[in-house]
């Protein structure tokens, strides 16, 4: 259950990162409100999952999902570049998340 919760927390991290960008430096109220609500939710879920998962694993998976999700959202919705080096970098992050999960099979 903790792994599912940390995954959901990571997805909320992607949402708040996107809306932070959309807030344009906190000058747009609706994106700013959405950002704070999803940020609070993400941190709350992260905190709960850390009751059951090792700190390093939970934080690495949470940030990794945020990085990968933000990378994809940036490419798809914000038309950011998707060159070989950026794709290689995110592939290495994915490999790290998989290894982190595999290293904690008993949790």
TrEMBL record:
Q: Where are the transmembrane segments?
A: 27-46, 58-78, 84-102
Could you tell me where this protein is found in the cell? Cell membrane
> What Gene Ontology biological process does one annotation of this record name?
xenobiotic detoxification by transmembrane export across the plasma membrane
Q: Which keywords does the record carry?
A: Cell membrane, Membrane, Transmembrane, Transmembrane helix, Transport
GO CC term, one of those recorded = plasma membrane
Instruction: Give one GO molecular function term.
Output: transmembrane transporter activity
Which InterPro entries does the annotation name?
EmrE-like, Small_drug/metabolite_transptr, Small_multidrug_res
Topological relation to the membrane, as annotated: Multi-pass membrane protein
Annotated SUPFAM superfamilies = Multidrug resistance efflux transporter EmrE
Metal-binding recorded as keyword? no
| Similarity comment: family membership | Belongs to the drug/metabolite transporter (DMT) superfamily. Small multidrug resistance (SMR) (TC 2.A.7.1) family. Gdx/SugE subfamily.
Name the record gives this protein: Guanidinium exporter
Q: Which organism is it from?
A: Zymomonas mobilis subsp. mobilis (strain ATCC 31821 / ZM4 / CP4)
**What does the record give as the organism's lineage?**
Bacteria, Pseudomonadati, Pseudomonadota, Alphaproteobacteria, Sphingomonadales
């Amino acid at each position: 259950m903790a792994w599912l919760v940390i995954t959901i927390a990571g997805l909320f991290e992607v949402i708040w990162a996107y809306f932070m960008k959309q807030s344009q430096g906190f000058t747009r109220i609706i994106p700013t409100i959405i950002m704070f609500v999803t940020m609070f939710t993400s941190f709350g879920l992260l905190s709960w999952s850390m009751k059951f998962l090792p700190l390093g694993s939970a934080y690495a998976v949470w940030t990794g999902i945020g990085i990968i999700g933000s990378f994809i959202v940036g490419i798809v919705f914000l038309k950011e570049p998707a060159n070989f080096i950026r794709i290689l970098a995110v592939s290495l992050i994915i490999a790290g998340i998989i290894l982190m999960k595999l290293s904690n099979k008993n949790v």
